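re: ur question from the group chat, yeah i did fold both. here u go
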Amino acid sequence: MSVPLAPSDLPGAEDDRNAQSMTPSAPHDPVGAPRPLVLEHARAEIRRLRAEAGRRIAVLDDDPTGSQTVHAVEVVTVLDEAEYAAALADPGSTAFILTNTRSLAEHSAVEVTGDVAHALFRLGERQGFPVDVVSRSDSTLRGHVLAEVRAIDAAQRAVTGSGFDGILLAPGYFDAGRVTSGDVHWARDGDALVPVGETEFATDATFGYRSSDLKEFLSEKSGGSVASHEVRSIGLEDIRVGGPERVTQILEDVSDGAFVVVNGTEYSDYEIVVLGLLRAEAAGKTFLHRTGPSFVRALAGIEPRAPLTAADIWPSGGPSGHGLIVIGSHVGLTSRQVGAAQQRCGLPDVELDVPTLLDPQRRDEHIAEVGARLAEALRLSTVMLFTSRAVRQGSDADDSLAISRSVSSAVVEVVRAALPARPGWVLAKGGITSHDVAVHGLGIRRAQVLGQLFPGVVSVLEPVEAAAGAVGVPYVVFAGNVGDENTLADIIESFSQGS
């Protein structure tokens, strides 16, 4: 089943409307759904309320791509409480903390998530401010959903003595065409919306699922311990007709850590939910959030920003060196993007052969040889490093993750070997790849999000604390499952023109 879309009505094509109004329903809304309600100055009101209450937002990001809808916030790449404190020093501030747990087995993901959450709640208790924790994960529902939520709730109980009243599930990523309507989560595929359970993402070797209805999804992923009929919902009618008052009413009735599905097809929906949420929290309710990227922007009241240009990134001129492009993602879209970039841009490329990397007898020699070739090519031009496109799956979910980590480790070693060639910018494609290249390849500890190269897609980070040679070098974080076939080539051409 799919729903056709007119180009002008695609998620992400929404205006920045700053007047209270009723606008036509998008064709992917249910028949008879109320028109979106856009409240004047909603984002400014959210920022004001957050600052007055001293609230901070800590986003536990299970891969480095969650910042694609925000700007002027910090990203912390290391698990260090002092860095959290620095990034959350100001009332109303927001910081992303990269846990990279989507690349970990569940027991390891639980341990990391619990440790970070403990540190954050201790920080809030010690310094006397409320911390809104967001468990940010994939907008196509892949990740350790129940395990991470339960780890954060356990940390809250350990530090404060009480758990959350409710858990908001808001996986929308409007800029990339992931919306929730009628409690069903949808993903854009070309000019149509498809129930997410019918997409390639649902067949993921590690995090596969069947259900597109989010209430059924929670029941499926919990093995039935979360009953679908017990999951609450904030529907489009609640949001667009009842407004913040209706949202507050629903949330005030939530208790005992119940899940609440948050519907939304554009940012105005989430902004109304956040206004209602802040009122409920002011009355004493507590909530945890499991979300995609879009909810974070609404929760923080961040204004949209126009896509970055090369001149924005290098205001004093172009990059000082050539670009290093690292491709790790294996989703079909990424492979098509690589093909288009090779055809349009004519870049030299260097390939890491995955079967060779998985052979202990040949691994080290192959890494050394590829690293030397990459460094030599980078001194002469922008170059693309990619892993062989054939997907290697393990015997089970944990084995598949182990293969991914082994390959990513090899990519990091090759990137390190190329650093003496002094890249002027670095782009990493894929979640695990983006994290490992940033943390282990470039030594980034903290960075500022400058903005995105396209509306809500592809963040550019400026390293603030990093290895020698990487501070100030723009780092482009490009998720595997966003953009169209030409997006990678468009970035390369834009950066080349800026040099």
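okk and heres the other one u asked abt
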Amino acid sequence: MQADIVIKNGVVLTMDSSHALYEKADIAVSGDKIIDISPTTQYKAKKVIDAQNKLVMPGLINTHTHAAMTLLRGVADDMPLDIWWQKYIFPLEKKFVDKEFVRIGVELAAAEMIKSGTTSFADMYFFEDVAADACKKIGIRAFLGEGVLDFPTPDSKTPEESLRYIKELHKKWKEDALINIVVAPHAPYSCGRENLLKSKALADELNVPLHIHVSETEEEVAQSKKKHGMSPVEFLDNIGFLSEKIIAVHCVHLSDKDIEILKKRKVKVAHCQESNMKLASGFAPIVELQDQGITVGLATDGAASNNNLDMFDEMDSVAKFHKAVRRDPTVMNAKNVVRMATAEGAKVLQRPDIGSLEIGKKADIIIIDMRLPHLTPVYNIYSHLVYSAGGSDVVTSIINGKLVMENRTLLTANENGIINRANRFSEKIRSEALKDQAE
């Protein structure tokens, strides 16, 4: 029997519903799917990967980022959110965000994510057709949301223009194996009732997810109560916006009533732990959300507020932070956190065919070198993944059945070329950013 790729002799962590773990197994891949997982596969392939002393597991799923913002990594750190956004990030975006910015930034982000074990990510930004082209070429699975706001964006003069753009993007990419177009109204404070409902109507028409920031800061909640007499979650529910299609990002400041609404409407949540900490937004009640059966995935947010896209860092921070703020070492256990980065992330993105290693599912697979000092000895693989491993331990990545990284080398892009282009573009940003900081 013939396959395209066979991975042999690895420890296989499936992240399926039973948490099956094989101490030694082979995986066969044909086309874009896993066709066999067994102690000794009968399949043969031209490409055989020996995973001896390595862990084979599902690729990680980043449920929210702003990929192109890798070009703003570290440009404005250690300052309050309103100053960070209004004085630095927004003016720089207004001046520099164009097709070239997005192409270079997304190439850099995709390379970073692949090299740290991420095989799927959800994005919210601008010029998403350019982002789609970059992701397609490098071979990463992407869920791309063109930002819809009440005011002009870098590529659209009006919200209506943004919505038309999204519709055209969906038409162009709807049959693609890697590129998924979603609708992304920015937030309830930047996208009013009319445009929120237009966004929902478009998502319903296209049958795609709705990706939106919700209740990130105390100020946002206070403004919503002042303007609408209710929290952002209550407002979104009141206008009929919420549904099982929603990817609600952050959800830091939630009341008990908000949580009840999210549960009732089957809203999915993207948890951005490191960004929430760095911008001092507060701590999201993720334990309470999960206790209510609400689906929660992990996300890095953009590199301007994190400052990397390494999901292993995110897992480590999530597990430790929630233990610390609750003074309870039993909450947010390692197995739960790994699920949030894989199988639960797939649920957030509403893609049941990714997130675990099972026959018939998409072959989104990463291989981690376990024969390293900081990963020795191994007593609990989940514990190691959350508290010891890092993105640089990923040696091989397969996305949609295609080998995109082997032995830490990207096979689908010139990594040095990407870095050089990013550094050249950053020189233009550097002079402007330094000028602003001097004022």
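fwiw on the second one: The first strand starts at residue 2 and ends at 13. The first helix runs from residue 81 to 96. idk if thats what u expected
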